[in-house]
Amino acid sequence: MEELTVEVLRAWARTALAELARARTEIDELNVYPVPDGDTGTNLYLTWEAACDALPRGELTFTEAIQAFGRGALLGARGNSGVITSQLIRACGNRLNENLPRDRTDHTDRTDGVLADPRMSEAAAFADALTYAADAAYGAVAQPVEGTMLTVARAAATGAMTAANDGKALADVCLAAVASARQALTKTTEQLDVLRRAGVVDAGGAGLVVILGAMESVLTGRQVHVDVPARVEPQGESAESQDGPAYEVMYLLDAPDDKVGDFRQSLAVLGDSVVVVGGDGLWNVHVHTDDVGAAIEQGIDIGRPHRIRVTHFADQNHHEPAPGRAVIAVVAGDGLAELYAEAGARVIRGGPGRRCSTGELLQAIEKSQAPEIVILPNDQDSIAVAEAAATAARQDGLRVAVIPTRAQVQGLAAIAVHDPQRSFDDDVVHLSAAAGQTRHGAVTIAIKDAWTMAGRCRIGDALGVVDGDFALITEDLETAAVGVVDRLLGGGGELLTIVTGRDADPALAEAVERHVRRQRKDVDVVVYDGGQDRYPLLIGVE
Prior knowledge:
- The protein is 49% helix and 18% strand.
- By secondary structure, it is an alpha/beta fold.
């Protein structure tokens, strides 16, 4: 693959999210700097997930995709490592947009009027963007420290630039960036005393190597799993004994760009790990401090702080699960309601022709009397409703997470891994990962003549749905169902879930099950009675 496109960005986003989910716990265990709170892997995952969720579906220009992805990372950044990663994403994306202006009729750099070079190759543009992003990340940190993910980012950029200058192709430039990042990561242990004493590499740097490794997978077509370096023999006092500020303060800040430089330095007087990223009037602020009020007041002095989050490290380090956590699921049928209820969820009826309201979700949240809430909307249209309810509930001091499940089968995959004994963030990560790794499909009958993504359908045609889009038009449901299953399994999978609808012919699910057992003996099949309307079969592949 020798061109950076929207499809490449989407593939990289999905692959990196899956890899961060796989490596998250190992990265958390490396986390001793800047504070040993064991959440770097989780923060990177949640930051990347926010960026992925902000990437709209459907047709997009390269510019639109990059800007949406970067903004999602900025708004959803978590922790020191997540904020720095959001800066890397945004800066890299903006630079690519300048150097590869495919979406505009001219080549004018919209930020400073300089003409971008339309002859710049994809490889050179990628290397230049990594260099620009590394510089931007260093600039966003009030007091940059070597031996951190900043060092790894710069090494990746240097390796990529060397390869690009040698005339290497895009995939080879990416390989060089990953190799340089991996080498730099191994050296972080000796660059930073706290890492040397603990016998670990930098956790943020490890996460960055995982992210770059995902790009290598996409560009080379070879699946690359980055192994997180194991601990080595500690040398000296344990990192757990280090002293530092008691609180992590984060917030979004609406403020003029020209005020941010002085603001960043003012925060550095109040604490450490100061990172301020963003631009065009919107900033994400991060600081470790003992004076929470002063850190927020600094933001008030130059603009409007909002979405303020304060974490007390002493409480966080105990890793004790908070009492009372409710999972609320929007369900589309009686059988599905029973499945979710048996798994411990509170259910609200929804589905085709019956959308739940914000008020219903808020009522369910209130009835649960739980301080922590996880919502599974389970269809595209209910996600916005769930987000609105979550925003309102957070104003009452509740912790609420919306897992953006777009199908009932994604919600089933999520609820299957729910564990109320985990910490809230840990549970949200597990549910998000399970849902995100589940491809979904369905079959239905056309109720009117219409144009679809698969072409024109007539009343009575059997329609196959894959990941939310109509993909097949056939004469009978069995052909449509088999076609949907084959497409879903074409991307791999170990478990096929079939949910039968109300009044569905049992022979339909049996035919699909026989087909899978005959063609894919390595795939397990489970069938549930869901009772949903309009869709004789809902299908999921994990």
